[in-house]
Amino acid sequence: xxxxxxxxxxxxxxxxxxxxxxxxxxxxxxxxxxxxxxxxxxxxxxxxxxxxxxxxxxxxxxxxxxxxxxxxxxxxxxxxxxxxxxxxxxxxxxxxxxxxxxxxxxxxxxxxxxxxxxxxxxxxxxxxxxxxxxxxxxxxxxxxxxxxxxxxxxxxxxxxxxxxxxxxxxxxxxxxxxxxxxxxxxxxxxxxxxxxxxxxxxxxxxxxxxxxxxxxxxxxxxxxxxxxxxxxxxxxxxxxxxxxxxxxxxxxxxxxxxxxxxxxxxxxxxxxxxxxxxxxxxxxxxxxxxxxxxxxxxxxxxxxxxxxxxxxxxxxxxxxxxxxxxxxxxxxxxxxxxxxxxxxxxxxxxxxxxxxxxxxxxxxxxxxxxxxxxxxxxxxxxxxxxxxxxxxxxxxxxxxxxxxxxxxxxxxxxxxxxxxxxxxxxxxxxxxxxxxxxxxxxxxxxxxxxxxxxxxxxxxxxxxxxxxxxxxxxxxxxxxxxxxxxxxxxxxxxxxxxxxxxxxxxxxxxxxxxxxxxxxxxxxxxxxxxxxxxxxxxxxxxxxxxxxxxxxxxxxxxxxxxx
Amino acid sequence: xxxxxxxxxxxxxxxxxxxxxxxxxxxxxxxxxxxxxxxxxxxxxxxxxxxxxxxxxxxxxxxxxxxxxxxxxxxxxxxxxxxxxxxxxxxxxxxxxxxxxxxxxxxxxxxxxxxxxxxxxxxxxxxxxxxxxxxxxxxxxxxxxxxxxxxxxxxxxxxxxxxxxxxxxxxxxxxxxxxxxxxxxxxxxxxxxxxxxxxxxxxxxxxxxxxxxxxxxxxxxxxxxxxxxxxxxxxxxxxxxxxxxxxxxxxxxxxxxxxxxxxxxxxxxxxxxxxxxxxxxxxxxxxxxxxxxxx
Lengths: 563, 295
Hints:
The structure holds 2 protein chains of 2 kinds. Chain A is globular and about 70 Å long. Chain A has helices spanning 2-33, 38-43, 45-49, 88-97, 109-122, 134-142, 150-156, 159-166, 203-209, 217-230, 253-257, 281-295, 308-316, 334-340, 380-394, 399-403, 405-413, 431-443, 456-470, 476-493, 508-530, 537-560, and strands at residues 64-71, 99-107, 128-131, 178-179, 182-183, 186-187, 198-202, 266-268, 274-276, 322-325, 346-349, 360-363, 370-373, 497-500. Chain A folds into 2 domains: 2-189 and 368-419, D-Maltodextrin-Binding Protein, domain 2, CATH 3.40.190.10; 196-363 and 499-560, Periplasmic binding protein-like II (D-Maltodextrin-Binding Protein, domain 2, 3-Layer(aba) Sandwich). Chain A starts with a helix and ends with a helix. By secondary structure, chain A is of the alpha/beta class. The model of chain A is unreliable at 1-6 and 12-50 (pLDDT under 50). Chain B is globular, with a radius of gyration of 25 Å. The mean pLDDT of chain B is 86. Chain B is an all-alpha fold. Helix content of chain B is 70%, strand content 0%. Chain B folds into 2 domains: 1-58, no CATH class; 64-284, MetI-like (MetI-like fold), CATH 1.10.3720.10. Chain B contains 15 helices and no strands. The two termini of chain B are 25 Å apart. The longest helix of chain B is centred in the first third of the chain and has 32 residues, at 7-38. Chains A and B meet through helix 1, strand 2, helix 5, helix 13 and helix 14 of A and helix 2, helix 6, helix 13 and helix 14 of B. Chain B: The chain crosses the membrane at residues 12-32, 82-100, 112-131, 143-164, 185-210, 263-280. Chain B: Belongs to the binding-protein-dependent transport system permease family. Chain B: Pfam families: BPD_transp_1. Chain B: It comes from Cohnella silvisoli.
């Protein structure tokens, strides 16, 4: 289903650009004539009078309301009668702040992004919107449809929230949401755990073979070879036809990075200019090696035609003992391996390293989604306050909220925090691995349980890992906690090079040519790996890529970062 | 009719029957497989070892399905859609096809209208204008958005129109002679004669309404208004792993990636259509005009 949607999105975006130009004008006219444009002016004198008394969690005296577009939560678990729009979380916001939120529309995943573009084109914007991509944010800013939030953030954001945003350092958190020095959106934070891709291996196979974890790509090949002899019907390393994707299963981000190759990212070339990672010479070396591994049968022969589900089945059925994936895969699909074979063990490693002994892993953009306020909406500060209250509650810093019986009840049924108004996950950059490490320390007796008292998130890890320790493999959920605490958490805390792309945006030529270039790229790479074309095909690809618009895009990207 | 008994024709028959049986089996296989998966153990299904027979047989996914109120809400939306949409399509198809099946001297401009219809079949304005039209008409988020935009299924109109044209015109003339007007001719001659064609187009429109998911996705503002196929499409396609932060969120993956439950939902969603077929099938053999006219 992915492909048609992708194509559709491109068509939509092209339409959108035409249309946003039109709606941009009407937006300006509306702004000039409607009284709400003065809303911003009204609110500015009042704070100056009560500059000292601003309470980021303060209740509004008269009810404030806004409409919004909200992503739906898949498989949402709520008590009978509660909905995404009206549940304990939203009621808590309402009783704390006197802010009432209604949903103009909701949809899930890809459908949300699609509907978002459509609703922009129809011109009926809700007061507050969740913006799914940087591209959409840019077009909203260019069409002058959204409010500048710089002042609101400076005045109303809680110190707690500011602390989270600042944990990335250097204002990186706001890099993509700031335009001409103005903060146009409140972003979420993609933490380290959302980017780091680990090598997962069947530890029981390694132990049986008395092998150490492979530090380099060559050692990995050795291990794969040994695995194939150990389990004759196994297929080797799993893969995905999308060779690189962030926070996904089976893709090879870290494997390419071990060669210093960063496909799909923008990297600095020798002269300080930006260049496209997929056409760098390192990529050729990486592809040549993968081709070798594939020819030897160390990579699943069918990875290029398999869907993710089918590769998962290989993992679950014990047909493969090696995959690349993020920290959370013990819940899916590794849990099924253990259910089918209780003797199975998985472990994660921050390997393979490059020739300098460094583990590199490419990182996604720091922001995944944004909250924006429609131009002319009278109470942008309400939006800020809702986020303050939401964040304080989500991270467990709000005693009133935590003590409420409803909170307990929601926790028991496993209601998702995404039932809060804003789907902005904001955490400390190292939260997952820090919590896991703390839980591990306590589990091993290096620290006492007192250390967990102030860190509610780490305590949850500890409790479940302890349950697994007492009754191994009884509950796969506990087992998954155990694996993260003992293996993937610590692996993420290893020293590593987080490789950020120098540019995550979209340029004009990308809009028209990226689909052709991406197709050329992925087809060439797959052909080289599968052995249907020679490695020298890479050079023809680079030439073609440059001619078909790559040079233009490179120039635009360099211009965009001021080179 | 005499059957030729040569061995050549008998082997040819055998081969043909074998081939057709194989094709029929191929069509049944995915349905059967889905049923087998839905009755299997979760982990076995995830490991892909379920083929034609359930592994570690269990009813658990159907038990779970019975408790899923969202599934039944969506089921109800779909039933409403099929009932409303089916009736509207049925009425409008007949009312459009009947006049157009007359000869050009009876209905001037007939060919122009037909070509306009064919044109809309081949070309459309695209997604955004379509969405904006429906949005400006205020139909978003209501059942009418699923029913009215496709109220006149052109393909069905053309099918029926051609069927009506094939009806001997002597039948119509004799009705006129007996004093029947156009309405009476339509209701008492054409519709009874046209039952096989009508059954076909009705089946098309019911299946079309039942199976379409995309308009539900785009035109419904709240997932509680999704028809069944949209709901199922979301289940099968969606698995958002973009920002997992806590173990609780990761645990959800375990539940969402539930192949057996999804298979059960898909299977249950097929049942209504499987039931409709045999009921409509009996009309296929009725209404034969053979022998009604002597020339």
